[in-house]
Each structure stands twice: as C-alpha cells, then as structure tokens.
Amino acid sequence: MGIRKHSSYIPFIFLLCFTLNISLSYGANDTITTTQSLTGDQTLVSSGGKFELGFFKPGNSRKYYIGMWYKNVSLQTIIWVANRDTPVTDKFYSQLKIVDGNLVLLDRSRAIIWSTNINLSSSNSIVAVLRDDGNLVLIDGSTSNGENPKPIWESFNHPTDTLLPGAKLGYNKLTKSKQILTSWKNSEDPGTGLFFLEIDPIGSQFIIRLKGSESFWSGGSWNSSRHLNSMFSFIDNENETYSAVSDAASVTTSEGDLISLLDHRLDNNADAEEVTRICKVACWCLQDEENLRPSMGQVVQILEGVLDVKLPQMPPSLQLLADNQEEYTFFFTQLSSGLSSQAQVLPLSISH
User: Fold this and answer.
1) Which of 288, 279, 280 is CA-nearest to residue 308?
2) Which residues neighbour 199 within 8 Å (Cβ) at sequence distance 6 or greater?
3) pLDDT tens-digit readout, 105-127
4) What is the C-alpha to C-alpha distance for residues 159 and 154, in angstroms, rounded to an integer?
5) Sign of dihedral through CA atoms 112, 115, 121, 124?
C-alpha cells in the first residue's frame, strides 16, 4: 500500500528531474535545436568557451535584449545584439527558439519580437550554433560538411557596433546588400544610434555618416588588396568591396619606439613627444572605471603638453583579453554626455 500511495508522484518527479537536467546542462551548450529554447538566465557558450549569448540588461535599463559577449571578461562587453530596437520586459517569459526554420525571439504573449527572417523550403533540421569566432549561425543540422557547415544565416552579416575577426564590413555588388556598423543610442540603450560606419563602394574607403545625412568623415581611398597597418585588409573585386579585421593581427613595438605604430603613409614624419602624449591619452581613456578617465579639458591639456601624466596600468578587461585572445576587435561607439554629437572608432589591439 505504501508503494501504491506514492506511485502517482513518480511521473512528476521524473519530469521535474528531466526539466532540471535540461536547465542545468543547457547553459554549457552551443546549440539551439528545434526542440529547445533559451529563456531567463540560460545561455549558449561557444565550444571553446570564448563567447556567450543570452539575455542581458544594459546599465540601469529595465529592458532585456538578446546579446553576445566575451565569456572570460569580467566586465561584460556586448559585441552583438539581436533585438536592439525591440527589447522585451521579462526574460523569464521570453524565448529564443527555432520556428519554421528561423531563429526568433518571442515575448510573453508569444509574439515574434525579432527573427532571422529567411525563407526555407525545409526547416525541420535547422539548428542555431554559437561558434568560437563569435559568429551565431543557422545551419542544416542534417548535413555533415566538415566541422563548419556553410551557414544559411549568420550574425557576421548583421553586425551592430562591433566588427570581429572573420567578419566583413562591405558591399555586395551582386545582391546590393552591405554590412554597416551602427552606434548604440547610449550606454543603456543598444538601439540604432546616430552614427553609421560603412564602406563607400565608389570611393573604396571608410565613411562615417550621421543618420539621415551624407557622410561627414572619410578615411581616404585604398588600393585593391591592400592591408592597412596589418590590422585591416581591403578587397575590391567584381563581386564585392569589403574590409575585414585581419586574423591574428598584432602590433608590436620595442621600448619607446612609438613611431613604428604610425600609419606607414606618414613615412615616420611625426613628433615623438606628440605621439607619446596621444598614446597616454588613449591609455587613460580605455580605463574600465569611468572616474579614472580624463575629462575633455584634461585631454586637451595633455595633448598640448600642459599636463604631464604617467601611463596607467592596463585595465582588467584588456588584460583578460590579452591573456585569452591574440586578435583585434573593432568597436564603433557613440560618445556620451557632452560629446553626444561626435562619434569615435575604437580599434582594440591585443598582442603578447
């Protein structure tokens, strides 16, 4: 009788254990299949543990976004956002899942907030995979084309404000499509900001333009297949024009030899003291703690040589990156507070 009295609980206990097992093991997975979804505090982690994807809330915002960040950097650094203009208010009632061959984000009413928006004839075997290069891809899980099947959709073709090694910033001459970096609105809102960085397919150069206007900055024309300071490669052919961050690119300099970091087009024609002051400003502006960064008045004084400062210690976030990655990440951000009318391009170089 004792066994019979408690036997009705067995299916419930089995279901509970099964559910807990999925939740606990799911965070270490890099894949979403048609039978899985991501919600709440669950995350995807790339196979090598470099990148993580899940819900995040920027700053003091009460809104949630699906984003990607570096797994091993303590200061969360968002490098890609899916629903940047369509946030959700509750991550525990929202789901990221495969629906009809697309990766979609559903809110608590099960309305589609964001989608990869592709058309497929067959969608039963589609899976989403977070790769170790920071590329979120949709692939056909039924095919076996080596370790990295050709993506049906990939986040590298839809960047937000960051360009990772392996991704392109360019223009496809056949499809007329292009990849653009767009600044956040502010530090607590990753929505589409005011500034756009893109490739000018006619002039073969970087251009920054303000939303709804013509370009107000250009980087100068490049030659075909030219590498820019070993950091960017530029390709122009009959199919496409693009620039990409070079894989495993590095910048090295001997003690005090800062002139070697200059653009080769300057032919070393620069004042060493002025270059030193510029490097000091850059190092202080990259500090993790906002109160350690100089004000604009201090920046001007340092650049003019009125205020002398020592080099700061490497901030913890960059130290962790240096310990784990030998590659470049290219950030395009909008300055906050009194500098909101300007844009800045931050090339982050990591070298041992």
Assistant:
1) 280
2) 169, 170, 171, 178, 205, 206, 207, 241, 242, 243
3) 999 999 999 999 998 877 778 99
4) 10
5) negative
